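Supplementary Methods, section 5.1.

A reviewer requested that the exact input to the structure prediction be made available. We therefore reproduce it here, unchanged from the version used in the analyses.
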Amino acid sequence: MRRGGRQENGLVPIVEPEVTLGPGDYTIEETAFWSERVYSHVFRLLHEYNVMLARAAPAQGYHSHK
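The structure derived from this sequence is encoded token-by-token as follows.
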């Protein structure tokens, strides 16, 4: 995952991490814990590889809850 000239030329990576814990009864706290760990790792790597998050756009169909 190298940024190089890709983002400068208008191309952006598609990143869609999904947390699936599998079968079982999980509390909202457990789900939040694992989601936070996954998203934290993903964003740390995006930063490490110099992906410019300021140019990131939410996925199509994303609706902000205000």
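DSSP finds one helix and no strands in the chain. These observations are discussed further in the main text.
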